[in-house]
Amino acid sequence: MLRLRQRAAIALVLLAIAGSALRAQATPTLDIRLPAADQLTTAGPLVLATNMLSSAHSREPLAAGFPARFHFLVTLWSEGRFTNSIERRAEYDVLVQYHVAEKKYDVVQLMNDRPPFSLGRFDRVEDAERAVARPTRVPITAFKSKKHFYYRATLDVQVLGASDLDELNRWLKGEVGPAIHGERNPGTALTRSIRMLMSRLLGGDSREFEAETGVFQVP
């Protein structure tokens, strides 16, 4: 009887530990929300990306000094009889970089070629994750029309390789560079590929997320 009770107690402890681990690693989620009905032509949609640094595959390369890039593409679509069309689009980036010597996480945002905007400097990765999750009002709006519209958001999450670090540092100094817009020198492709492979061997990954609003019309 005692052994059965001991086994039951151990099983309960293991279940509690497993449950805590599952709660700690929350599911990354991308969400896009419409503005109020009376603001459809004056305000863009709200985009939220939550729990994006919840997995070890994201945190371990980040802690090793490889920045994480979150590239957002938001598009306004109209429904057609046979095909749907993109009416407007906007892109922006959020970068997270850990400075090992200072033990600080920097989170910055770039939108519409504006200078980098700091979302904060943090001691904990959880706080950096919350900064990434701050709702962003995207500056594309619908317009009066008989068409039916909807918004779509896509998010590409990448761990940048070592070859991107110099470009990133230039970008943070105000030089909007190739690392953000994807315009790179083809001659460095082999080096980039090798170093990106190194970052992935350290646990880095590349993930994509997508979300849409419901269909709406502008009154």
How would you sum up this structure, described in words?
The chain is α+β, with helices and mostly antiparallel strands and 219 residues long. It has one domain. Helix content is 30%, strand content 32%. The strands form 2 sheets. A 6-stranded antiparallel sheet has the order 6-5-4-3-8-9. It is elongated, with a radius of gyration of 21 Å. Mean pLDDT is 79; it is low at 6-23 and 176-204.
Overview in brief:
The protein is built from six helices and nine strands, in the order αββαββββαββαααβ. By secondary structure, it is α+β, with helices and mostly antiparallel strands. Strand 5 and strand 6 form a beta hairpin.
Task: Describe the SSE topology.
Layout (H helix, E strand, L loop, with lengths): L1 H23 L4 E5 L12 E5 L5 H8 L4 E11 L6 E15 L4 E8 L5 E6 L2 H8 L3 E2 L11 E11 L4 H9 L5 H4 L7 H13 L4 E7 L7
Highlighted features:
6 helices, alpha+beta, single chain, 219 residues, 3-stranded antiparallel β-sheet, 6-stranded antiparallel β-sheet
Nearest-integer average pLDDT: 79
- Binned, the helix content reads 25-40%
- How many DSSP-defined strands? 9
Number of helices: 6
Q: What proportion of the residues form beta strands (DSSP E)? A: 25-35%
Q: Which H/E pattern describes the elements? A: HEEHEEEEHEEHHHE
